[in-house]
Amino acid sequence: MTDTTALHYTEEHEWIALDGDIATIGITDYAADKLGDVVFVELPAAGTTVTEGTVVGEIESTKSVGELFAPVSGEVVEANQAVVDSPELVNSDPFGEGWLIKVNASSLPKFLSHAEYRALVGE
Amino acid sequence: MSTPTSSAFDLDAFGRRHIGTSPSDHGLMLAELGYDSLDALMAAAVPTSIRMGEVLNSAIPAAATEREALAELAALAEQNTVRTSMIGLGYYGTVTPSVIQRNVLENPSWYTAYTPYQPEISQGRLEALINFQTMVTDLTGLDTANASMLDEGTAVVEGMLLARRASKSTSNRFIVDADALPQTLALLESRAEAVGIELVVADLVEETDVAAFGEHFGIFVQYPGASGRVWNPASVIAASKAQGGLAVVAADLLALALITSPGELGADVAVGTSQRFGVPMGFGGPHAGYMAVRTGLERQLPGRLVGVSKDAVGAPAYRLTLQAREQHIRREKATSNICTAQVLLAVMASMYAVYHGPRGIRHIAGSTAAKATALAEVLTGYGLTLAHDAYFDTIRVHVPGLAGNIVERARALGVNVWEAGDATVHVAVDETTTAEELSLVAQAFGLPERTEVAIETATLPAVASGELRRTSGYLEHPVFNTHHSETQMMRYLKTLADRDYALDRGMIPLGSCTMKLNAATEMQSVTWPEFANLHPFAPEADVVGTLGLIEQLETWLAEVTGYDTVSLQPNAGSQGELAGLLAIRGYHLANGDTERTVCLIPSSAHGTNAASAVLAGMRVVVVATDELGNVDLGDLRVKIAEHAESLAALMITYPSTHGVYEHEVKDITQAVHDAGGQVYVDGANLNALLGFARFGDFGGDVSHLNLHKTFCIPHGGGGPGVGPVAAKAHLAPYLPGHPMAQRADHSGGVTHDGGPVSAAPYGSPSILPISWAYVRMMGSEGLKQATASAVLAANFVASRLREHFPVLYTGENGLVAHECILDLRPLTAATGVTVDDVAKRLVDYGFHAPTMSFPVAGTLMVEPTESEDLAELERFIEAMVAIKAEADAVAAGEWPVDDNPLVNAPHTAESVIAGEWTHAYTREQAVYPVHSLVRGKYWVPVRRIDQAFGDRNLVCACPPVEAFA
């Protein structure tokens, strides 16, 4: 089990796990629940340079479409092929197997803490 | 009742047939609401500031009876002259099998159904549509087809837009085959300009040096060409793709039975029409266009797509798939603004293929080609030369200086051929062409009278035996190889119809959809040959009756909306929106206001508004709505100030999408005008206004109407639609024109000079008699009574259900307009029962669900319309109250949260008889929750369908028969 209290968060309902410069990025359980059954995930390819705050991918459910914002700037080092093949992982394990991309971050903005994020979503 | 009864309810008036509730019912319903007359109710509901005055010198005659209206229609029909059409250019004679005409086109089980958004009660037409998709993918040699497009011309435009989205090229250039249909060229030009695409029109031949065009995102090829030419575009396609473009090919489905498919030639996208598969020309429409794509482009497809999923017990079931592409979810980022498609016509075309099968289709194609060959041989034997030696059904004959003459001679002999320049006569044959008619054409070219034109069907025509001969199979699925006797076909159509819920079973209370009566008399003339068998480019003298009908309808629609002129060309509401916004764009450009490109759209608007604005080259800026669902006037003023110099338009819906008469609408339109913007009023909710207020009077500059909502054209299970655009005089020059229109003039004595938005000059004229008959039989008084009765019905339902479900928005005096939003969120919070559960449980009670989660998530929007009678309204109220009680039982712990009649709904017959019954509720509670169902049960064919499974495992063609074992 991922320790969700150790993760960083954004107001766009994304979580970030930092390991040195490598940021692993996914969407929160709250976001996955709001989207409903995720059926399609579009992610930037490895090697793509992404800019913080811009839309870099899409998470589509049967009834809505969520945009994936890059929470950091840097180069994508890996996109999660497992989640592209089985989008339901975003619902079943958003903090684990449902991770989306890994980015070699060039700089880190200020994130929300676990407590701040939970307050944001009213939990 | 103190007020006298309206003449709309006289014993011989059509009004009392159309309006379901009687004056005495009105008395009971008004008493429930605390009003003593319909007038008093409407006075309280509709804001005084927008109430219309008396129309002086009304053009709408007093109501005709049904018999009188039919007699007038017959007189109009008699003014048309049906000549044999050999014009072709995308519209051909075809034989509608009688079994299809009677059991589909003239059958309310098919034509009164709604778009299959509730898939459990739409399995019949979803199967018919997946047959359509399979037919299209088979014939085009591509992988996934949608169901369906509005016509061929707009399908080509959508193909171009798809190519731009999907191509990696950053170029704005699109290469267009000069041998494209003329109407397609006109559409491409006007639509490309609005979105900044540069068209390069070029003569394409096998040797064309594609690299010389420079970088481009796509190429368009007409196959066979408009001139009839059959050529191999494979090398051109390959060269375009090699430099990063996508290849879009418009292909004739019948020709594809004989020649190599676009998919095998390398096309990424194939588009076209299915008209000649048994759907009459109808002076231009309606017909189903099609689009198919290769694997990898499915998510780029516009419009509706049927897929296979499974239900709650694992049985295969159909549903609309990948809906997240569509404008109701993705708004301005949607793949297209198309929503209404051409379902009824797609069903007819698919059934034509089911009935004829692959051998029959190949035979029809072969004999068509043989007729063209026979005529060509006679003419060349006479010494004439042809423009092309390789052709399918169309030949072009070189006759310097004589073309006009020959066309006139053919006409005198009863045949319309086409003058393709003063040196060229164009002749297209089809399934219906006879040897005698070919002989008359030969005579027109100067051959002796009664020259024999021998049609040789024993040997393959050249087109089917040459380099491009088709070697791949098609229509091999058993569904195309089973129903070839009429008995079997009749039963197949009945079997499918029995799976569906349409207005012939009960109320379809879909908010914002206006599922009112489509009266039999209104439908009567659709299939009359004088209306059905006209080519859209037939000479004006042949179509005087239909043009007269169109002019009257334009005039009437202008009068009831307070506008100066109307164009009936748009084939759906979405196209009407686009036409209206393009008119606004044209107006600003003509005034030199090139910067005016911002379109303000309230957050509560239908998603199509935003998608249409983008296609009109506008930038969408969202305006907030207040807690009552009205446009937030404060935010509007802020947004207007922010974009003062760049404001093009505001799009609002009136009454609002929340079903409320906003009181500040005049302030809103004034604020936009003061800033130099134009006001677009979406007419989706016109059924709440007709006869009481007019868009043009309270500040609208342009609107679209939905004849398939307010004016009785049936929904056809998801189309056809007609979306006329109505405008003030200053926008008239920018409304859609058409290069082949028989007349330049329109109602109000103006011309429409904008680019076309449909392939045919008058859109879908064969269904316009429906709306004409409605207005003619209701008269102004009847239309007014219909509006008041619709508002009464909505308020009656709201009042009776209010204690069970909160009614979300109301105007002054606590009244709604013609629809009401029931808020299920408190129920969901308290019991876990969702909107989905209630919608599916309504199926068990014998109802189509109201509109779900629009415009507010977690709610149901109910629009009963004026056509439902009081007993049906009571039956619906009874069902909703009973469902609320069931939810309360779940909340009270009487039934488990995960095993109750709501969460398990809908219940099939099989589900209550198979195996041991282990549920917490009884079988009777499952399927006969109210006693009246025992004799009147609609049995749903599948359990609740797994939406996510279908989206994750995309299958859009007929599944193997074993899947249903």
Q: Any overview of this molecule?
A:
The complex is a heterodimer of chains A (123) and B (965). Chain A is α+β, with helices and mostly antiparallel strands. Chain A contains 4 helices and 9 strands. In chain A, 19% of the residues lie in helices and 38% in strands. In chain A, a hairpin with a 4-residue loop joins strand 1 and strand 2. Helices cover 36% and strands 11% of the residues of chain B. At the A-B interface, strand 4 of A face helix 30 of B.
Short description:
The complex is a heterodimer of chains A (123) and B (965). Chain A is an alpha+beta fold and 123 residues long.
Question: What labels describe this entry?
Answer:
heterodimer; A: 123 residues; globular; B: 965 residues; alpha/beta; Aspartate Aminotransferase, domain 1; Aspartate Aminotransferase, domain 2; 7-stranded mixed sheet; 27 strands; 36% helix
What is the CATH architecture annotation of the domain at 105-353 in chain B? Answer: 3-Layer(aba) Sandwich
Q: Give the averaged pLDDT of chain B, no decimals.
A: 96
Report the mean per-residue pLDDT of chain A as an integer. 94
Which fold does the CATH topology of the domain at 105-353 in chain B refer to? Aspartate Aminotransferase, domain 2
Q: What is the tally of helical segments of chain A?
A: 4
Number of strands of chain A: 9
Describe the protein's topology.
The complex is a heterodimer of chains A (123) and B (965).
Chain A: E1 8-9, E2 14-19, E3 22-27, H1 29-35, E4 38-42, E5 49-50, E6 55-61, E7 65-69, E8 73-79, H2 81-85, H3 89-92, E9 101-107, H4 114-120
Antiparallel strand pairs in A: 1-2, 2-3, 3-9, 4-6, 5-8, 6-7, 8-9
Chain B: H1 15-18, H2 23-33, H3 38-45, H4 66-78, E1 84-85, H5 98-105, H6 108-111, H7 123-140, E2 144-145, H8 152-166, E3 173-177, H9 182-194, E4 198-202, E5 218-223, H10 234-242, E6 246-251, E7 269-273, E8 289-293, E9 306-310, E10 316-320, H11 327-330, H12 343-381, E11 385-386, E12 394-398, H13 403-412, E13 415-416, E14 418-419, E15 424-428, H14 435-444, H15 486-498, H16 520-524, H17 529-532, H18 544-561, E16 565-567, H19 573-590, E17 598-602, H20 607-615, E18 619-623, H21 633-642, E19 647-653, H22 665-674, E20 678-682, E21 702-704, E22 725-727, E23 745-746, E24 750-751, H23 768-801, E25 820-823, H24 825-831, H25 835-844, E26 851-852, E27 859-862, H26 870-891, H27 909-913, H28 923-927, H29 933-936, H30 947-952
Parallel strand pairs in B: 1-13, 3-4, 3-5, 5-6, 6-7, 17-18, 17-19, 19-20, 20-21
Antiparallel strand pairs in B: 2-8, 7-8, 9-10, 11-12, 12-15, 14-15, 16-22, 21-22, 23-24, 25-27, 26-27
Helix pairs in contact in B: 2-23, 3-23, 4-18, 4-23, 5-12, 5-15, 7-12, 7-15, 8-9, 12-14, 13-14, 18-23, 19-20, 21-22, 23-26
